[in-house]
Amino acid sequence: MKFEDKSLSCVDCSEIFIFAAGEQQFFAEKKLTNVPRRCPTCRVNRRLIRDGKDTGQCTDVKCEKCGTSTRVPFKPTGRKPVYCIPCFKSQSVPVAAGDSAPPTEATIFHDGE
Ligand SMILES: [Zn+2]
Ligand SMILES: [Zn+2]
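Above: query sequence and zinc ion SMILES. Below: predicted holo structure tokens.
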């Protein structure tokens, strides 16, 4: 069975989030029939509440990459960029191989001589 990324709407914040093919496969392997109803951010928040952690310690930040506001359970130092969970995840995905490097400015410039 082939899985495809699905867009779902979070029941807490109504944000659209991606239920990735890999996650769907994980769910299927675990025989989980329910789909996630919350976006990753809300899931993290709920987990913090369940663990008795005060989400009041969460800091509202803007994602460095896409500009979405997100909450992180720590105080950003300002020295490291902060990403929302989807961007953070995509950061760790290796760049697709096989892309040939575009010609550099220098090679174009010297071509006409
Ligand atoms: Zn949400
Ligand atoms: Zn982002």
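Residues 6-91 form one domain.
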